[in-house]
Amino acid sequence: MWVLALTGLLYLATAAVRRWYVLGYGAVALLFAAWALWWRFFMNMSGVQWYAVPAGAYLLGVGWLEWRQGRKTLARWIDRVGGCLPGGAAAGGGGSAEGDVVGRQDDDTFRRSAERR
Q: Of 21, 18, 19, 24, nearest to 9 (Cα)?
């Protein structure tokens, strides 16, 4: 994780000095990967949405930058993926185990109240 973060910072500095946009995209992706690993293993955030929403926002930002540089076809594809990623995670049922337990408790409460009537 630290290797990804330090490599990302080094590549980001190189991209800024030499103005290589593609290297900058890769550098930010490395920083994002380090951040995601930190949240997964040290903050114990296991829900898919914690990763899909920032990744989608990152891809939308990359698409916007590509659009400004005149690469409109690539920008459209990046925007499509960036727009579908958070929605796909939400539709795929990427909830945590806590949410499943709460859902079962709500179902049990509903059944008990229906039995009382």
A: 24
Q: Would you call 68 exposed, middle or buried from its count of C-beta atoms within 10 A (0-12, 13-18, 19+)?
A: exposed
Burial 40-50 (b: 16+ CB within 10 A, else e): eeeeeeeebeb
Burial class (CB within 10 angstroms; exposed 0-12, middle 13-18, buried 19+) of 27: buried
Q: How far apart are CA 93 and CA 106, in angstroms?
A: 17
Is the model's pTM score more than 0.70?
A: no
The DSSP call for residue 43 is: S
17-39 tens-digit pLDDT: 998 888 888 888 888 888 888 87
> How many angstroms from the chain centroid is the CA of residue 39?
11
- The residue type of 39 is W
Cα-Cα-Cα-Cα dihedral sign, residues 106, 108, 99, 85: negative
